[in-house]
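worker-3 :: picked Glycosyltransferase involved in cell wall biosynthesis
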Amino acid sequence: MHALKQQMKPLIKVIIPAYNEQDSIALVINDIPSIVNEVIVISNNSTDNTEVNAKNAGATVLSENRKGYGYACLKGMEYISLKNEKPDIIVFLDGDYSDYPEQLNELVEPILKDNIDFVVGARVKHLRKQGSMTPQQIFGNWLATILMKLFFNAKFTDLGPFRAIKYDKLLALQMEDKTYGWTVEMQLKALKQKLSYTEIPMKYRNRIGVSKVSGTVKGSILAGIKILGWIFKYSFK
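worker-3 :: tokens ->
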């Protein structure tokens, strides 16, 4: 992988977990830059036209019936592992059109130019549309990143789902979280394994449809418990 920045055209695959995102998924796929070799949408128990719309937009579509963000991401990784040609970089992106997929070029640039292992798209305040993140999301991100700074001297400011990582480094993390803790698990393990990392400021807008996590009180509480659980688990390892 150290030769990655010398390659003219790296192999980049995008993993998009999606649960009932029929109105947004094609917009997301269509805005992904041509530098990407394959877009993989994992339908996580969708009951609408998410799968059809994703296929029509040119994505590879997989199905994961066990509900959970992590389950969907792991399904995408399993699919990639069975391919002969392995990617250089994996990008994770949500299917709700809250991120700006065209910023993927900026996201992977530190990997390609500076050989950084892991890049998180940070939803910084001055680039966020008003109301695009709920108060509980903002507080949860603040608390999680403050604790990571306290326990691990981390420089993360966000748990943003729009992120890029070298494929071999991703495999070495041995990701396991099946639900809400996926993003923080990746960041904690990256810190533990001393991966080089950085954040790129990202624009962020109101998602299309209702959030399945931050849009409900139950979802917010469960996500918060899971995130804090991972942080405390790793702080005592």
